[in-house]
Specification:
Length: 121
């Protein structure tokens, strides 16, 4: 029966067989594009300030990082250095926004200690 269908369609392939769908990483590789994705995030239930991210990337992403000046002995080191830089930038941006906010600055306590010195809290 399958042979008859193939003859009618004029194809030598199985018409029931579906084409494999590419993952986002495979698609990026195929298109020669950089790829990075957060696969998972873990948070320590006893200390919510601690946790970990699991990242996946392709070689093109690492090559772009190298060209941008990121360094490391392994691909993992290079991507870790990039991720740390991203986290630092987020913290710095939040700090700068807080410092620029007049309401936050007004709430800052300043105490004159004398001799041109001040205590800020």
């Amino acid at each position: 029966m399958l042979d008859k269908i193939k003859k009618l369609l004029g194809k030598n392939e199985d018409p029931i067989k579906k084409e494999k769908k590419l993952t986002p990483k495979e698609l990026a590789d195929k298109n020669k594009e950089p790829y990075v994705q957060v696969l998972s995030m873990e948070v320590d239930e006893k200390d919510l300030g601690n946790g970990a991210f699991e990242l996946d990337w392709n070689d093109i992403f690492v090559a772009r990082l190298l060209r941008a000046g990121y360094q490391g002995k392994t691909d993992q080191d290079i991507v870790d250095n990039w991720f740390k830089a991203i986290c630092r930038n987020v913290l710095q941006e939040n700090f700068e926004q807080e410092q620029a906010d007049p309401e936050i600055r007004a709430a800052t306590n300043r105490r004159d200690l004398g001799n041109g010195r001040s205590e800020i809290s």
